[in-house]
Amino acid sequence: MPEFVAILDFGSQYTQLIARRIREQKVYCEILKCDTSPEELSSRQLKGIILSGGPSGVYEEDAPRCNPAIFDLNVPILGICYGMQLGCEILGGKVVPAQHREYGSTEIEISQEDDLFSGLDTSTTVWMSHGDRVTDIEEGFDTIAKTENCPHAGIRHRESGFRGIQFHPEVTHTPEGTTILRNFLYSICNCSGDWSLSRFIDEKTAELKETIGSKNVVLGLSGGVDSSVVALLLDRSIGKQLTCIFVDNGVLRKDEREQVRTMFTDNYEFNLRVVNATELFLNNLAGVVDPEEKRKRIGNTFIDVFKEEAADIPDVEFLAQGTLYPDVIESISPIGGPSATIKSHHNVGGLPEQLGFELVEPLRSLFKDEVRQIGKELGLAPELLHRQPFPGPGLAVRVLGEVTADNLDILRNADVIIQEEIEQWEGYPGIWQSFGVLLPVQTVGVMGDQRTYDNVIALRIVESLDGMTANWIHLPQEILASISSRICNEVHGINRVVLDISSKPPSTIEWE
Ligand code: XMP
Predict the structure, then answer these.
(1) Atom 4 in ligand 1: which residue has the minimum CA distance?
(2) Is the per-residue pLDDT at 189 higher than 90?
(3) Atom of ligand 1 minimally distant from the CA of 432
(4) Considering 81, 189, 191, 488, which one is annotated as catalytic?
(5) Between β-strands 316-320 and 358-360, what pairing exists: parallel, antiparallel or unpaired?
(6) pLDDT at 154 over 70
(7) Among this protein's residues, is 170 annotated catalytic?
(8) pLDDT in tens, 48-62
(9) Which residues are CB-neighbours of 359 under 8 A, at least 6 positions away?
(10) What are the two backbone dihedrals, phi and then psi, of residue 350, each rounded to the nearest 5 degrees?
């Protein structure tokens, strides 16, 4: 069991970042509900606790709280912003709304030596974002840092060793933030830094072998990174007891079914079933224009097809899924995940209950880039490793309005051109997603001497770290020009190309 640091989540938009930063320092950490019990925490090799920031004020009626008994666990605790205020309040300090809200970069002065700040200059830039502040800490506390507006920007409780900081060490706007977190982990919590992805692979492989025993496992393989990495891990652990099922739902990109089949059969030996269910999916989508209804129908049809396929594999007891940590975290935050209810993303959610299988989710504690690194260590083919994310409902949410075989063909042909052109750009690796959206409008054009009345393709090309926020990319004009002229010339049914210049928020990445 690796040593671990618990991050109790009070709803800050930065909580995931804290976890990322800590794992980068080779310490395993998990984000847990803010009221996780001391017993649960101490049942593992707990080295320290971080109380995250959050949008509430500690004296608000419904403010989320931790169990005060965690302060008796005898492990170091660091409170960040709201976490600092809560800790101070529990330990006898006084918190009031600040007269000046501080938001943004500011200079702090380190006013007393502390292990948390070792290696730092006495004045350093930090990122503040808070409304309340700690005002009265005479009893039992030391002030270890201050700013012009904030007399207690860093504090230490003498008896318990609790430390609080009123700024965010996890964001890049705090240049020495990593040093501060590292000091907490290594000088204060005495972590040994035993977390690594190769250790994860070894431990997971052994754990899966033990859990699964001699039973069989099915996995819905999408051809994306997550399910491919799950397949590789299971292959390593249980070999032929795994059957992967790839369902062509009729809304894939051009030639995708055969590309995925070839990629897997050329490189790996696990059992792979490829099911062409195009007709069934398109029939079920006929006449549907509402995006959520499209998602629902695709999800339900997928469940039907998958159930039928899995039914004739003997002795199946487990269903494997590529659930990642951000999905798990969404259900932990006291304020709900940021995009939890905007689009219903997880369209295979109904599968385990319906099939009566037990779930295996070997990646549920990992972030996307950690999954990519594991894929790399397991030898995942580069063309799979660097695939852009592709939504479960596929092109159905990129053909706006009704999804028909003809519309899908038009979009597929345009999509191929977009990818071909954009892959030549040196900035391609920095793109999160690049695709076309077929708009349900017709516009007048002229081709040769002929009037045309055809559809419009919108280009959606964004950069993003995790899909939660995104910026549109300023592509070189030559690339845009060649995408546009090639689409209009080569794709029958399109006479106009437009560029989507919206970021997320307020837009989303997909149009539906
Ligand atoms: P949005 O459009 O919400 O998308 O900004 C964020 C990321 O999620 C993908 N996405 C989906 N993935 N099922 C999925 O598996 C879905 O229904 C779905 N909708 C959006 C999207 O491609 C982007 O990467």
Answers:
(1) 509
(2) yes
(3) 24
(4) 81
(5) parallel
(6) yes
(7) yes
(8) 999 999 988 888 888
(9) 318, 319, 320, 321, 352
(10) -80, -5
Q: Which tokens belong to 478?
A: 């030559």
Q: 416 Cβ partners below 8 Å, 6+ apart? A: 253, 254
Q: Is the pTM of this model over 0.85?
A: no
User: Catalytic annotation on 81?
Assistant: yes
Q: At what angle do helices 477-490 and 405-422 cross, to 10 degrees?
A: 150
Confidence of residue 480 (pLDDT cuts 50, 70, 90): very high
Domains belonging to the chain, first-starting first, are 4-188 (3.40.50.880), 197-385 (3.40.50.620), 398-499 (3.30.300.10)
What integer pLDDT is reported at residue 331 of this predicted model?
67
Alpha-carbon span 113 to 122, nearest angstrom: 9
Residue 135, pLDDT > 80, answer: no
**Tokens in use for 293?**
């209804």
**d(C-alpha 482, C-alpha 422), whole Å:** 10
Tokens coding 44: 């593992």
Q: What spacing in Å lies between the alpha carbon of 47 and ligand 1's midpoint?
A: 36
User: Which residues are CB-contacts of 438 (< 8 A; sequence separation ≥ 6)?
Assistant: 398, 399, 400, 407, 410, 411, 414, 455, 456, 457
Average pLDDT of span 426-432: 95
Q: What is the 3-state secondary structure (H, E, C) of 330-385?
A: HCCCCCCCCCCCCCCCCCCCCHHHHHCCEEECCCCCCCHHHHHHHHHHCCCCHHHH
For a pocket test of ligand 1, which of 290, 433, 509 has the largest count of ligand atoms closer than 8 A to its C-beta?
509
CA–centroid distance, residue 368 to ligand 1 (Å):
14
Judged against a pLDDT cut of 60, whether residue 155 lies above it is answered with: yes
Residue type, 405: A
Burial of residue 464 (CB within 10 Å: 0-12, 13-18, 19+) is: middle
Q: Which atom of ligand 1 is nearest to the CA of 390?
A: 22
